[in-house]
Amino acid sequence: MVLANSINLTIKGTMNTTEAPTNRTTIARSVLNQKLNGQSTLERGKERTLTALTWIYRWGWASSTTLEMLVGTQRSGLAQRLVKSGLLVSTKTQSRRNEKFLPGSFLTLTVDGKHMVEIGRLEPMPYEHRPERVNQNHLVHDEMAQRITAERLMAGAITDYSSEKEMKSRSQNGVKNPDVVWIFQGGKKVSVEIELSPKWERDLDTFVHSSLVSLSSKTGPARFDQLIIFTDAPAILKRYQKAFMPGATFWTWQKNESGRWTTAEQKSVPSWANERIIWEHV
């Protein structure tokens, strides 16, 4: 009787040992299916590739960090795989400064990468393949714009965006193109400005004026519903907040007969500025 019980326990233990890996495999597959949302791993891989390539097409370039944010993973090696497959080119950053938003390298599309994007795009636009044409003086500025946009897009805070590159062909006279436009659920449009260095005199006046024009509904629907200004410098934040304070004055500028810039008309910031301008310190 004792021997029989011992045999039964041995059999049960063996069954439990066999079932445990099976259960873990089943659970792992279930989690993977949820992540893939019904897609095969091949389909998911193609989707990630197109997402990354399209992002670079719309912005001109991107960092591997931003691409990882877009596909919702960390250290996936997506950028390296796309470089090896001949769809992207990686270029080292010239500056060796240690800054939060300065990538160590940046990624641009190859001819094949551009083609993969454009075969499914109704409105193709010019794309510069040569990495040396990327203005590396603007890397920190543009990387910040891309990352904060990617963060909000993946979090579902915004539904779409328009990069400055996309807006260049649709520029309006007297209305400044922002660094990026965020589109919210319901169609709300918010212009985004990244300010990392201070503006003075004519440059500051022009920035204030053009920003207010884009928000004004005096002569018809406003181009944008709100403006968000991001900066990493407390001093710049205070200076701009003062410049946009309702009642603050600024000048419009024009060139005189000698081709020199002179003040033309003094204006004041309207009362609605507080409601339509948001400040973010990053």
Using the coordinates shown, work out and report the CATH topology of the largest domain: type ii restriction endonuclease, domain 2
- Counted by DSSP, the helix tally is 10
Instruction: Please tell me the overall pLDDT.
Output: 87
Strand order of the largest sheet: 3-4-5-6-9
Low-confidence segments, ≥5 residues, pLDDT <50? none
Total tally of structural domains: 2
Helix share bin: 40-55%
The secondary-structure class comes to alpha/beta
Helices and strands, in order, run as HHHHEEHHEHEEHEHEEHE
CATH class category of the largest domain: Alpha Beta
Q: Roughly what fraction of the amino acids lie in strands? A: 15-25%
Strand elements, count: 9
Structure keywords:
single chain; 282 residues; alpha/beta; Arc Repressor Mutant, subunit A; type ii restriction endonuclease, domain 2; 2 domains; five-stranded mixed sheet; two-stranded antiparallel ribbon; 10 helices; 45% helix
